[in-house]
Amino acid sequence: MSEPDEADRPLFLVVSIKPRLDRLDEAEAQLQSMRHNTLNEPGCVFMHLTQPQDDPDSWVMLEMFRSRAAWDDHMLQPYNTEGNRILEDLLREPSDLRLLDEK
């Protein structure tokens, strides 16, 4: 059996997020709102906002989309584009986004 085309393979993401310590509640509310909307997208398999046990001042969003195309579509959704604009003021620095393929 051949390997699936890159556009048809699942896409995993690990997003490291550093919220401003003086705006934690606002940042979490914004991320949870974006997460709630994303979970309704047909291309989203899962999305979890997590907190590393060894770094309580940072968060990690773990995501899986059915394909790169599904993630590209996700990135164009108004609640995502507007949400990311709002997050700019709620974070200490831009989020670090890692895209991963399944082995």
TrEMBL record:
GO function term, MF aspect, one: catalytic activity
Superkingdom: Bacteria
UniProt-listed Pfam families: ABM
Name of the molecule in the record: ABM domain-containing protein
InterPro entries xrefs: ABM_dom, AI-2_Isomerase_LsrG, Dimeric_a/b-barrel
Gene3D superfamilies named among the record's database cross-references: 3.30.70.100
Signal peptide limits: none
